[in-house]
Design goal:
Chain lengths: ~625, ~450
């Protein structure tokens, strides 16, 4: 028999990377929150790969940290190896990536949830969701009913999950967890347009079955930069990773058996991500490529399982054994967990507002893979925003909406809710038009004040931030006013770096503007410089060196924000708007953008349509004034 | 809001033409190109006041004009507005618009003045509907022109250039977004070579706006032919006064003579070149040398023949020395008996015209021939002209951003900054084709590179 098991402000369904951030943010803002998951041992599970960060994803992690989220701190606590990617390619694309101990990560996150005030952690399968008066009601498999004003759905790949390995398919969540089937039917009944996406993971193999003498070692950075602004020194790297390559034989085995792949036999119709293709996909689509690179990474410090990055597959297990063993170093490899593809249900994100609340279902929010994205970091970013906004709704406050110029988080969400996606969406630096402003080194400057306003940034973090800001601005002032005099030694140094000598005194900032020079090179000639962390010097130098570009981007941002401020009235009837072209009318009707900025980014809305819209809005305002 | 500008009178030869500038910096834009005769700055004028003065470009006078200042909100658009009334004629009006655009204004979108007028409360509420319809109609018209142009060579070329830029961006994006993958390194020298090629394409593309350019910048026409066929007489006829020394002695013109005139609406600089022939006279030899340079530089060459006699060796030598693709045959002395073999002329020249410099006959035919040569008929109505101007404008902006990228590349700037510039250039160029450049780049990344974890 049904029974009421609890009344909450916010309920979070799922405790993966999205659910964790959602639950912690809502509870920390002061809402009575519960997070419900099918298996407490899978909290913060990392079934895809044992790493966090990477290009653009590392930016997301930093941004979540600046706002007061948890992923960065936990990644720092569980890191095994850390690398700053893209050094030398310019500050806009520097990205941090760490290998993590995945079992530890899961345990640490579970404990953080358990210790969090205002938060209950429950193991249950939600099988039904419905509206009960003004509240949302979640029903568990065991007939318990949970009531709340807001619900955040973070079902990941569990929702209607199906695992495919060769000719075999079965209902399952990731890592052979139960899949959530009954909830799928309930969400459909509610009226959410669900669709199928697909992703996959490679095999896990036994460390002692690998011949490391044949592999190239990949080490972490010497100077480790933590993800979190709150983390101190992380210590040394704990592990090495290895590089291996496929060969002609691997290709032959795969292509000979391609008809046994569920992707090619037509068994899977879910859409997979292009940036994360299976090895058979790579072999087919890039058949002229001689060899493909792969990485071998430890899954943790207390396990012998090794992860084969770049080698995900849905071929049958016997074929997997055969093709993995063609690879130099893996001739005798023993598979512990076979690779698999997983299909799952998710929602069309065009149904969501930028707050991640459903347009048609007040109080219902979505985050993570459920919204059509991919990746732990993308999930955590949305989970955080959805959790914050669920809490703000309960508190009767206006939602937190980050625009594209503020962050990668804002870019991610705007892309999802304005453009939609036809494949699991991955963050990339190429997706941001404001790359030189949205850097990983200045995430705190961009977002920490917002985190402080939300009450998610502690006083200690805040004062450290203010101190860092002051040091930065002092150093900037000093660099702009300090004159460096020419000397033989200085000119010898700068000429050796391929730039012209100076004849008279030059401001330090003007020297730093030259791409060939930096603080390090100029140190001996700059005696008045105080001791600073690398981070402060790095930020200052970037601001000086890239000032022209940053100013240019800031002007573009100003123009974008001007449009963003022009709100489109919610009751606009596009049907009645004279002068809109048909395609624009259909798109606008479906997406219902909140402001002119969002409208301008919808494909198929032309400048002429924008003009028509601008005039209609002006007319609307004037008519309203008249009535008053 | 940007400050916008456009020609607000019909683009046809007429008494006066008006260029309207509207926006916060309308007055300062106008002040940067206009100098009143009494030295007053427009910025110091009240609204509804006018000043007589001159428009300058590169320190030379373009036209005498009247600048009329409207101060916000008392103007058509409700913003600061300057209206420049200049001497009519397509060339001058276009030229002044061009100068205004070079000094900080952007070309107005279709219906944009009216839209601003409405947004700034200068129009009645009941007019809103008609304004919306007007804008969408004008937008559709512009789109139609763009679409019809799509099939044309110019747009094919633009799409091709854009594809090259997308490819470069895909290479840069894949390289920076997938650092651990087996992606080729971006080679700065190769990148530079590719940018050079794209810039060369864009620059040559803009030169295909021959008619537009002819109207805005004018044409250089060289007059050549063997000695004493009447080159100087033709020049004088076109110029309307005795500019060159005319005599019956062969080799009278020893230097290149320049003169400026109008052929219809097209401003033309004429070069009367020395007769090309082998000579021992040192002064004349120098003249011949300069004449050859002049012929290479000209947009069009008028090759003059005496139609009262057959082609001589000297005529054939002239023909062998010139670029026939930009030459037209002008057959002088139509007042005399025709002895020239027209079939032979047709063999060398795609166009010829018969004139009599002595009797001033055939000048209209010559004008038509020039119009035909630059493709004035392709300009059609003023909309097409404006669409040409828009393409020209966008391509020029793309060129200037890419030049900045080249410069940054030469200075050793990191590739993330260069990537941003190339992305900007692509966004600007994409305005001509309408696709979303970011999506195209991402699609190209995945179709060109094998990525995946």
């Amino acid at each position: 028999m049904d029974f009421i098991a609890g009344n909450y402000d916010v309920l979070v369904v799922g405790a993966g990377h999205a659910g964790i951030e959602a639950a912690l943010a809502a509870a920390r803002i002061g809402c009575k929150t519960a997070v419900i998951t099918m298996n407490l041992d899978a909290i913060g599970n990392c079934p895809c790969n044992p790493s966090i960060g990477g290009t653009a994803k590392g930016h997301l992690v930093r941004e979540i940290d600046a706002l007061g989220g948890e992923i960065a701190k936990t990644a720092d606590e569980c890191f095994l190896q850390s690398r700053m990617l893209n050094k030398g390619k310019g500050p806009a694309v520097h990205s941090l990536r760490v290998q993590i101990d995945r079992n530890k990560y899961s345990r640490v996150m579970k404990r953080k949830l358990e210790l969090q005030q205002n938060l209950d952690v429950k193991q249950a399968e939600i099988i039904d969701i419905f509206k009960k008066d003004a509240l949302w009601c979640l029903k568990t498999r065991l007939n318990a009913l949970y009531l709340a004003e807001c619900v955040v759905i973070c079902t990941g790949t569990y929702l209607d999950g199906t695992i495919h390995v060769g000719e075999v398919s079965y209902q399952s969540g990731p890592d052979n967890m139960f899949s959530s089937r009954l909830l799928t039917a309930s969400l459909k009944k509610l009226g959410l347009p669900l669709r199928k996406f697909k992703t996959g993971t490679p095999a896990r193999v036994l460390r002692s079955s690998i011949d490391f003498s044949k592999l190239e070692k990949q080490l972490g950075d010497k100077n480790i930069v933590p993800f979190s602004y709150s983390s101190g020194n992380l210590g040394d790297n704990k592990i090495a990773c290895y590089v291996a390559w496929t060969n002609e034989q691997t290709k032959k085995v795969i292509l000979d058996n391609i008809n046994r792949s569920p992707m090619y036999s037509g068994k899977i119709d879910g859409i997979g991500p292009r940036y994360c293709p299976s090895i058979e996909d790579k072999m087919v689509r890039f058949s002229d490529k001689q060899r493909h690179q792969m990485f071998i990474e430890p899954c943790g410090i207390d396990t012998e399982e090794m992860y084969l990055q770049g080698m995900s597959s849905s071929l049958p297990e016997d074929v997997q054994i055969e093709f993995y063993r063609t690879i130099d170093g893996l001739q005798n490899v023993k598979i512990m967990r076979p690779a698999y593809a997983i299909e799952y249900a998710c929602v069309d994100p065009l149904e969501l507002l930028p707050s991640l609340e459903f347009k048609n279902f007040s109080g219902l929010f979505g985050a993570g893979q459920f919204n059509g994205s991919s990746g732990y970091e993308e999930a955590a970013a949305q989970g955080f925003i959805a959790g914050v906004n669920a809490a703000l709704k309960v508190k009767r406050k206006s939602p937190l909406i980050l625009d594209r110029a503020s962050s990668y988080i804002g870019t991610l969400i705007d892309d999802l809710v304005s453009k939609g996606t036809h494949e699991p969406y991955r963050m990339m630096t190429s997706r941001s038009e404001y790359r030189l402003v949205l850097r990983q080194d200045n995430a705190d400057e961009r977002l920490m004040p917002l985190g402080k306003d939300l009450g998610l940034v502690t006083d200690e973090q805040w004062y450290r931030f203010l101190d860092r800001q002051k040091r930065k601005s002092d150093e900037l002032k000093r660099a702009r006013s300090t004159v460096i005099s020419p000397s033989e030694a200085l000119n010898r140094e700068i000429v050796s770096r391929g730039t012209s000598p100076i004849a008279s005194g030059v401001h330090l900032a003007d020297l730093l503007k030259r791409p060939q020079l930096n603080y390090n090179v100029l140190k001996p000639f700059d005696p008045t410089r105080a001791e600073h962390d690398d981070n402060i010097l790095e930020c200052t130098e970037i601001e000086i060196k890239y000032q022209g570009y940053i100013d240019k981007q800031n002007r573009q941002i100003q123009e974008m924000r001007r449009l963003e401020c022009q709100v489109i009235p919610a009751d606009i009837e596009y049907e009645k708007l004279a002068g809109l072209r048909l395609e624009a009318r259909e798109k606008l009707k479906k997406i219902r953008p909140l402001n002119m900025g969002q409208a301008s980014r919808i494909s198929g809305v032309s400048p002429a349509d924008m003009s028509v819209l601008a005039i209609w809005i002006a007319k609307w305002h004037r008519e309203k004034e008249k009535l008053q | 809001m940007h400050t916008i500008a456009a020609i607000s009178t019909a683009l046809a030869p007429g008494g006066i033409g008006i260029i309207r500038i509207s926006g916060d910096s309308a007055i300062s834009v106008a002040d940067s190109i206009f100098k009143s005769f009494d030295g007053t700055k427009l910025a110091d004028l009240n609204g509804y006041c006018a000043k007589f003065g001159r428009i300058f470009y590169n320190r030379s006078v373009v036209d005498r004009v009247i600048a009329l200042v409207f101060r916000a909100p008392h103007s058509y658009t409700g913003e600061n507005v300057v209206e420049i009334s200049c001497h009519g004629g397509v060339y001058i009006v276009q030229k002044i618009l061009d100068i205004v655009l070079k000094n900080g204004a952007v070309l107005a979108q279709p219906g944009e003045f009216t839209k601003r007028a409405f947004l700034n409360g200068k129009m009645d509420l009941s007019e809103a509907e008609s304004v919306m319809n007007l804008i969408s109609a004008q937008g559709e018209k512009a789109e139609k022109i763009a679409v019809s142009g799509m099939e044309g060579k110019i747009n094919k070329k633009i799409i091709q250039i854009k594809t090259s830029l997308v490819d470069i961006m895909a290479g840069l994006s894949a390289w920076s977004d997938f650092p651990d993958e087996d992606i080729p390194q971006v080679d700065r020298n190769l990148l530079k070579t590719k940018l050079d090629a794209i810039l060369a394409d864009l620059i040559s593309l803009n030169s295909t706006f021959f008619a537009t350019r002819a109207l805005i910048n004018g044409l250089k026409i060289a007059v050549t032919g063997c000695p004493n066929v009447g080159k100087s007489s033709l020049l004088n006829l076109l110029m309307g006064y005795q500019r060159a020394i005319v005599s019956d002695i062969a080799g009278t013109t020893r230097d290149v003579v320049e003169g400026t005139t109008m052929i219809g609406d097209i401003p033309v600089t004429l070069f009367d070149t020395a007769g090309i022939r082998d000579t021992v006279d040192i002064v004349e030899k120098l003249g011949v040398q300069r004449a050859k340079e002049c012929l290479a530089d000209a947009d069009i060459i008028f090759v003059l023949f005496d139609s009262s006699r057959t082609l001589c060796e000297n005529d054939r030598e002239v023909i062998s020395l010139i670029d026939l693709s930009k030459s037209v045959a002008v057959l002088n002395k139509s007042d005399l008996q025709l002895s020239l073999d027209l079939d032979e002329i047709n063999k060398y020249f795609s166009r010829y015209v018969r004139i009599s410099a002595k009797n001033s006959a055939g000048i209209d035919e010559l004008k038509n021939l020039v119009y035909d040569f630059v493709g004035m008929d392709k300009l059609g109505g003023s909309e097409v002209f404006i669409s040409g101007q828009r393409q020209f404008d966008i391509i020029n902006r793309t060129i200037s951003i890419l030049k900045e990228a080249q410069c940054a590349l030469d200075n050793g700037m990191t590739l993330d900054a260069i990537t941003v510039l190339i992305q900007n250039s692509l966004d600007v160029l994409a305005q001509l084709t309408g696709e979303n450049a970011t999506d195209e780049v991402i699609n190209a990344v995945f179709s060109k590179f094998c990525l995946g974890k």
